[in-house]
Amino acid sequence: MNTRNAERGQILPFVALAFALLMGFAAFAIDLGYLRYQQRLQQTAADSAALAADWALYGVSNPTNSTCGSESGAGAPASVCAAGQNAARNNSFSSAFNSAMSCSSTAPVCVTINYPPQSGAYQGNTNAVEAIVHVSYPGFFAQFLGSSTNWVSTRAVAVIETSSASPCIVVTERDLTVNAGARVTSPCGISVAGNVNASSADLIDAPSVTASGSVSCSQPSPCPASTIVTSGVPPFPDPCATVPGCAALTAAYPLNSTPTASPYYSGDCTTPSKNATSLSPGFYCSFSPSGDVNLSPGLYVFSGDFTANNLTCTGCVSGTTGVTIVLGGKVKLNGATTSLNAPPPWQGAGPATVSASMGAPGVLFYQTSTTTSPENFSGQSLLGMVYAPNAHINLNAASSLTVSFIVAADIVANGSTLTVSAPASSGGYTQVPTLAE
User: Fold this and answer.
1) Residue 1 included in any domain
2) How far apart are CA 86 and CA 279, in angstroms?
3) Does residue 144 share a domain with residue 89?
4) Are 392 and 372 in contact (CB under 8 A)?
5) Is residue 395 included in any domain, yes or no?
6) Average pLDDT over residues 320-339
7) Do the Cβ atoms of 335 and 376 come closer than 8 Å?
8) Nearest CA to 60 among 43, 84, 44?
9) 435, 156 in Cβ contact below 8 A?
């Protein structure tokens, strides 16, 4: 018999074995690459869920220890759970738990929110929230090796702590819109209840940008790569309560009401002359001078609108004296040289002291109005808190606004600049959620 004929076919087993090994390597390489890519996306969802849930703690009084893993947030503080679940959903990871509240082939995505965290360095920390995203992915080539499903878990923990990203630009109802040629610059964070709308031609320069809706602040332009961008968080609490001077004004002049003389003045309001060149603290109906006006330090209360050109306070000394203006109407400031500062922020313990001669600590403008008409600012330097939570602030082309802290219903910058001159020393969020694990 021919020896060579007898040896025919012996190579086939080796080819089959080699093919099986190649398929194994292919399964390992392709599936591993796919899982690593999905893991990065999944980690982003976990990070966003933890941050959003931790933000929601601001709105919960005495939250209880709990875990939630369902879309309804059963068992957890509703706002905390919903915030985490929504943030994960916005990043394309929506929970689909089965009836047993666990992951399975019929429920391949599980987003669990633990308050406080159940593991890690922040276990039991009541300022922290843990988010776990557990997802099953199909095996591709790995199916040839008998593995049809791969499970991947990612985890993130956010904790409330002191941060330079504490917001000092707060939009309470709608959007922050930065149109072509505009610029928003802040050494502290930006918090928006609606959306952040910015095109590639614009620039937002801040350590953090956080929104309940979407954030079109792509990186590295118009936002620097160092900016922490978070979307899908719950609406932010009103920061006025964290600023002693603002909180004291709220007790005297509630929002959505018309300011009265009491408790700092008496009698009916008066209307200053249009030809007035100076004004002293008092209770006024409205203000619309024809020329420049110098204000004396102290508290001004206007039941109506406030319209002026150039304003100064030559008697104001930064860190010692300043001006507080309470408004029942809307604001229109057109002066290119307006420069005002608020009384110094409250440093003592307990409630702040507000007086007619000194004003409200840390607060420059306080508006109670329900108006949604635009508030116009042009070329202003307003060092202190500008509190107008019902107002639409419009910054027109070639204008600028410099503030220490601003709160508004929404802000639109059209070819203009909005600059925060310093961190929110007048108060506001002194602590914010940050990723810890």
Assistant:
1) no
2) 51
3) yes
4) yes
5) yes
6) 84
7) no
8) 84
9) yes
Residues 192 and 327 in one domain: yes
Identify the domain containing residue 399 by its residue range: 167-435
Give the chain's largest Cα–Cα span. 127
pLDDT in tens, 285-301: 998 888 889 999 999 99
What's the burial of 413, exposed, middle or buried (CB within 10 Å: 0-12/13-18/19+)?
buried
The helix or strand, by DSSP H or E, that contains position 73, with its residue range, turns out to be: none
Looking at residue 368, what DSSP letter applies?
A: -
Q: pTM of the entire structure? A: 0.66
Q: Which of 435, 396, 436, 430 is nearest to 415 (CA)?
A: 396
Distance CA 398, CA 276 (A): 29
Give percent of the chain above pLDDT 90.
16
Q: Residue 261: what pLDDT?
A: 93
CB 412 within 8 A of CB 179: yes
Examine the domain organization and report whether 80 and 174 are in the same domain. Answer: no
User: 37: buried, middle or exposed (CB in 10 Å: 19+, 13-18, 0-12)?
Assistant: exposed
Per DSSP, the residues of 315-337 read: T--TTT--EEEEESS-EEE--TT
Which H, E and C letters describe 180-203, residue by residue?
CCCEEECCCEEEECCCEEECCCCE
Q: In the block, which residue shows the tokens 């002693």? A: 244
CB–CB of 339/381 below 8 Å? yes
Does 7 have pLDDT greater than 80? Answer: no
SS3 of residue 224 by DSSP: coil
Q: Select from 278, 272, 397, 402 the least CA-distant residue to 337.
A: 402
Distance CA 361, CA 118 (A): 42
Assigned domain for 35 exists: yes
Q: What is the pLDDT of residue 271?
A: 92
Angle at 160 between CA 156 and CA 161, to 5 degrees: 115
Tell me if 5 is assigned to some domain. no
DSSP β-ladder status, 189-192 and 208-211:
parallel
Does residue 144 register a pLDDT over 70? no
Residue 157: Cβ within 10 Å count: 26
